[in-house]
Amino acid sequence: MELGAYLPYLVNRVGQRFIGDMTPVLNEAGVDIQSWRVLIALYQRGGQPVGALSDLTSINFSTLSRVLDRMEKRDLVRRRRDAEDARSFTIELTGNGRSVTEKILPYAAELEAQATGDFSEAELATLRQLLGKLYAGLDGDREQPTDDRLAG
Amino acid sequence: MELGAYLPYLVNRVGQRFIGDMTPVLNEAGVDIQSWRVLIALYQRGGQPVGALSDLTSINFSTLSRVLDRMEKRDLVRRRRDAEDARSFTIELTGNGRSVTEKILPYAAELEAQATGDFSEAELATLRQLLGKLYAGLDGDREQPTDDRLAG
DNA sequence: GACCGAAATTTGCACTTGCAAATAATAAAG
DNA sequence: CTTTATTATTTGCAAGTGCAAATTTCGGTC
């Protein structure tokens, strides 16, 4: 086994860099990385129960619960009791949450663009597709349908 | 922007899964994820100063210092003062560290194999290459030479 | 050969994390 | 309608984490 060929290594290395490069922008906006993950998930998928949000963001259940505490304090999200099932909350963006997200998004896009400056459209598409396929091949136990939809 | 097309999202999602799937095996061996990262880095690259190890593993400097404390306690690594420069330590695997690593490696390989079961050799090579390229495109500020060598 | 800025590593501190147990609400059965 | 099993979420606790400051050593300069 060669380190530079070991996929978990290659993947997490890139992931860490994305995080490292995003952090200064997020700090300036007073948002931590986990909150940012939640923000984009909600921004694009709309209100979600905590469980779905945990799947969506890969943030641990209990951790997410406390991330939401922070976010609520900073008026980024709101917990609304589900009318159908009172065990469940729907987490939704506040107006402020939406506006903060929209302020950060351009930087996120720019970072991605910078990282993929040397990529052709075809390469980009391939990379996305292969990452999706890789994800699908991991931990097949979890509910596949949901995950597949996410991968789309 | 679509969530499923956003690279940081796709990458970190896969990374989290790799970690999640590896954790049970690591727990059984009494090793945490960070220690595992250090183990494979040392196993493949040999003794390293803390700084290089931090680059190699993407683990924050101060965090790594304490990860090494844990690892030293569990007799996985040893700190040896550099003869040339007494500010620096060379971190090296102990015999036990090597043997623990070799015990875990097959599972790591199996996990990767399982995740990439549907991949052709060509796809695998492409994925690795594109991840390397993506890494290179990120955070161009850091010392490129070192990073490029690592990406090899 | 004492002085000063820079480099390698560690530590203080306040905050974040994940596991497992607790809470709260629903659903199904008797 | 009480009991019991199940699901959604939160919390107690013991670690783990990152930032910024401290420590130790180096290399050059006066």
Mean pLDDT of chain A: 88
* CATH homologous superfamily assignment of the largest domain in chain A: Winged helix-like DNA-binding domain superfamily/Winged helix DNA-binding domain
Beta content of chain A comes to 5-15%
DSSP helical segment count of chain A: 7
Q: Which of globular, elongated, flat, extended, rod-shaped describes the shape of chain A?
A: globular
Distance between the termini of chain A: 31 Å
Proportion in helices of chain A: 55-70%
Which protein chains are joined by the largest interface, and how many residues does each one contribute? Answer: A-B, 56 and 56 residues
- The quaternary state of the protein chains shown equals homodimer
Radius of gyration of chain A: 17 Å
Q: What is the CATH topology assignment of the largest domain in chain A?
A: Arc Repressor Mutant, subunit A
Main pleated sheet of chain A: 3 strands, antiparallel
Q: Can you write the helix and strand succession of chain A as a string?
A: HHEHHEEHHH
Domain module count of chain A: 2
Strand order of the largest sheet of chain A: 1-3-2
DSSP strand count of chain A: 3
CATH architecture of the largest domain in chain A: Orthogonal Bundle
CATH class of the largest domain in chain A: Mainly Alpha
Which parts of chain A are unreliable, with pLDDT below 50 for 5 consecutive residues or more? 142-152
Notes on the protein architecture:
Two copies of one chain form a homodimer. Chain A is mainly alpha-helical and about 150 residues long. Chain A has two domains: about 20-115, Arc Repressor Mutant, subunit A (Orthogonal Bundle), CATH 1.10.10; about 120-150. Helices cover about 70% and strands about 10% of the residues of chain A. Chain A contains seven helices and three strands. Chain A has helices at about 5-30, 35-45, 50-55, 60-75, 95-115, 120-135, 145-150; strands at about 50, 75-80, 90-95. Chain A has a three-stranded antiparallel β-sheet. In chain A, strand 2 and strand 3 (about 90-95) form a beta hairpin. In chain A, helix 1 (about 5-30) packs across helix 5, helix 2 (about 35-45) crosses helix 5 and helix 6 runs antiparallel to helix 7. The first copy, chain A, binds a DNA duplex (30 and 30 nucleotides) through helix 4.
